Amino acid sequence: MTDGLRALLAEPAPVCAPALLGATIAGRGVTLRITEVEAYWGPTDPGSHGHRGPTPRNRHLFGPPGTLYAYRSYGIHTCVNVVSGPEGTSSGSLLRAAEVVDGIEVARARRGPSVTDVALARGPGNLGQALGAVLGEDDGTSLLDGSGPFRLTLAPGLEARLTAADPADVVAELLRETVAGPVGAARVRRISVGPRTGVAGVAGGATFPWRSWWTGDPTVSAYRRHQRAVD
DNA sequence: CTTTCGATATTCT
DNA sequence: GAATATCGAAAGC
Fold first, then answer.
1. FRET partner for A117 with CA separation of 20 to 30 A, picked from A10, A89, A163, A226?
2. What is the DSSP letter of A144?
3. pLDDT at A186
4. CA A226, C1' B4: Å apart?
5. Domain extent listing, chain A
6. Nearest partner of A68 among A116, A114, A3, A20, judged by Cα
């Protein structure tokens, strides 16, 4: 693994998550470029699986940075998080959408022949299926050292920035480019930030605007408020 | 277009 | 028993 990635993953999920946009996760015959993420920070976040402490399901969310945390959603779907921050705290970035950049035939075989390319890994359950994630085998494996089925690689250009400056400052710059748009470079992907999908009550809405995505990217999932969301 | 509902593991009330 | 970091099909407008 690289020092830049190590420095980024030392940060809690709300800092780390936006910098995972453009990173790739590769393994089981496919490579995905991440286009949408949500941060979950247990110590202050009622929406986090880890907010009330470790359980058999969520224990790897407390693991060392670079751990993969997989969980069963609604009893059916397998969703994938990148664990970051200090070991012993629950901090994860949920991978919500991605572009399939390699192994598109493999992804389509898993998702079905009628699914369009941009929808192959759109939504966290679909992303997990396109990856071929297996809950029992993959939960708790490393995304960094090659000992697990998947490997995480930073977006091009971020490695140098993350080793030259404080990662929190680099992420703040990335988000500033969100508001101002491309500064001088030929073409910079803009990042949008908003409330998390499917999270109800105070944990949703404006309290924790911890969903981030590539503005206008066709692989990003549609926002849906939770059924029982409160004002 | 929007809303409803079934599938169902894990956790909390 | 109810809610949940979801998805897709079916039904209603």
1. A226
2. S
3. 45
4. 14
5. 3-214
6. A20
Give the model confidence (pLDDT) of A207-221 as tens digits.
Answer: 999 999 999 999 999
When pLDDT is averaged across residues A42-53 and rounded to a whole number, the result is 97
Q: Give residue A206's pLDDT.
A: 86
Q: How far is CA A21 from CA A46, A99, A110, in A?
A: 24, 11, 24
Q: Are A107 and A30 in contact (CB under 8 A)?
A: yes
Q: Which nucleotide is nearest to A72 (CA to C1')?
A: B9
- Are the beta carbons of A75 and A135 closer than 8 angstroms? no
> Which positions on chain C have an atom < 7 Å from some protein CB?
3-8
The percentage of chain A sitting over the pLDDT mark of 90, rounded to a whole number, equals: 84
pLDDT by residue (tens digit) across A100-150?
Answer: 999 999 999 999 999 999 999 999 999 999 999 999 999 999 999 999 999
Q: What CATH number does domain A3-214 carry, 3.30.565.10, 3.30.1490.20, 3.40.50.1980, 3.10.300.10?
A: 3.10.300.10
Q: On chain B, which bases lie within 7 A of the protein's CB atoms?
A: 7-12
